[in-house]
Specification:
Layout: H1 5-20, H2 24-37, E1 41-43, E2 56-61, E3 65-70, H3 76-79, E4 81-87, E5 92-103, E6 106-114, E7 127-137, E8 140-147, H4 166-169, E9 182-185, H5 193-204, E10 211-220, E11 225-227, E12 233-236, H6 239-253, E13 262-268, H7 285-296, H8 301-309, E14 312-316, E15 319-320, E16 343-345, H9 356-369, E17 374-376, H10 388-396, E18 399-404, E19 406-408, E20 415-418, H11 421-433
Helix pairs in contact: 1-11, 2-6, 6-11, 7-8, 9-11
The chain binds zinc ion.
Length: 434
């Protein structure tokens, strides 16, 4: 298949979304706007739900968890739920609370490593800060999402002359001592948290004394871009896994007013750190949301369990494309390419939730959508990664299939993906929800 205008538009929309989403909370905020403009209304966990056929809704839990649904025409104990799960968080750095300090004439920030980033890829890049600012005014708390439009931070590598072996031995980074980024040069006044608070307060136009808390992440200021002689690649941070969030949301938005089955897209936080938060893949989030839809439709607990037994979950997360310079690191008979469609991930140790049946079901969805697909198996002598698939499938007792688009440099600050694949995945997901 050739690169079509739809493919280029889909990839372009995804790239805009990646640029707007330096953190999971920003991704959720961007998706909320898109849902509201497409007729979805917000539900809360604190109020009773009254849902009827064709209702389009979303529910947020925490800053970076979102469950989006459309109530089908048929009862869920007849059809089961059609569910897609993905994660909003990405590996990187979180700023340590109250940890701004001066050393050797520089102002630096203490950072914690979040998940498993490729650390070396974060050095010598124009980094900045984004996150949640908790504000207290007249005794009331309010949170504000803030990102700086200018590059504020740098993790400089040491010069070659100080580390002559680096090109042979690789860049070794001590996690405590070598990663704190530089924020400024010291001046005559001591630099305390107060000065950082004053800067942020001026950016968001509030008095600094209203800042009650900060939850900041480090991000790369370089925007996503098309790449290659034929523009059939694109590069960005956070493709793992905002690309799958984008595909799932695009698919659910495009569904007809009244689909037959009830569909749910669940975007979880904290996948990169084990999924055990109130809105992670191991939480009650998707289960609670599905059960409340059932209750709202007049079903009892047994009928809800019947519905789950007929349900299927697509766990959508990035997959590994074969790297031309390291082909020997990949299973020789299951090497996946960019722009060749969704990858179905299979693992005998159940690091992926895919079964023969769920794989065949997803293959049928791809065939219906006219989309190619590929299959991934990890090398037997290497340890395979995992996803929310096995966790959510275990907790809910539903059949699941692990899929994703192939990318290069997974967990790098700047990952590489194919321009055809976002469109392929969106079309396959649409077919899966119909
Ligand atoms: Zn992922």
């Amino acid at each position: 298949m050739n690169l079509t205008p739809e493919m280029k538009t889909t990839a372009g929309n995804l790239m805009n979304f990646l640029d707007e989403s330096p953190t999971g909370a920003f991704a959720v905020a961007s998706i909320r706007k898109r849902l509201i403009s497409n007729g979805f209304t917000e539900l809360t966990e604190q109020n009773k739900w009254k849902l009827t056929q064709g209702n389009r809704f979303f529910l947020q839990r925490g800053d970076a968890g979102l469950c989006v649904g459309i109530v089908g025409n048929l009862r869920v104990d007849r059809t089961g739920f059609r569910m897609i799960g993905a994660h909003t968080d990405s590996p990187g750095f979180r700023v340590k609370t109250d940890d701004v300090y001066e050393k050797a004439g520089y102002v630096q920030l203490g950072v914690e490593i979040y998940g498993g980033p490729l650390l070396a890829s974060w050095t010598d890049r124009d980094l900045s800060l984004a996150g949640k600012i908790l504000l207290k005014k007249n005794g009331k708390l309010k949170s504000h999402l803030w990102k700086s439009d200018k590059a504020l931070l740098r993790i400089p590598q040491v010069a070659l002359h100080m580390n002559r072996a680096v090109n042979d031995d690789g860049l070794k980074l001590d996690k405590q001592n070598h990663l704190p980024p530089i924020l400024a040069l010291s001046d005559e006044k001591p630099f305390t948290m107060r000065r950082l608070n004053e800067f942020i307060a001026s950016e968001i136009d509030v008095p600094a004394k209203e800042i009650a808390g900060l939850e900041l992440e480090v991000f790369d200021t370089q925007k996503a871009a098309f790449l290659g002689l034929n523009d059939d690649l694109f590069v960005s941070g956070r493709i793992d896994n905002l690309a799958m969030c984008h595909a799932a949301i695009s698919a659910i938005i495009s569904l007809p007013e009244n689909p037959e089955s009830t569909v749910l897209v669940s975007l979880f936080d904290a996948e990169e750190v084990g999924s055990t938060t109130m809105n992670g893949g191991a939480s009650s989030f998707l289960d609670n949301c599905a059960e409340r839809i059932a209750i709202s439709g007049g079903l009892n607990r047994e009928e809800y369990l019947i519905a789950l037994s007929k349900s299927i979950l697509i766990s959508a997360d990035a997959a590994h494309a074969v790297h031309p310079n390291y082909t020997d690191l990949y299973e020789p008979h299951h090497q996946n390419a960019l722009n060749r469609g969704p990858v179905i991930k299979i693992n005998a140790l159940k690091k992926y939730a895919t079964t023969t049946d769920s794989s065949f079901w997803f293959e049928e969805c791809c065939r219906k959508a006219g989309v190619p697909f590929q299959k991934y198996i990890h090398r037997t002598d290497r340890v395979c990664g995992s996803t929310i698939g096995p966790i959510a499938s275990t907790n809910l007792g539903v059949q699941a299939v692990d899929v994703g688009n192939a990318i290069l440099s997974m967990h790098s600050i700047r990952e590489t993906a194919g321009v055809y694949d976002p469109w392929y995945m969106t079309e396959a997901m649409k077919a899966a929800m119909k």
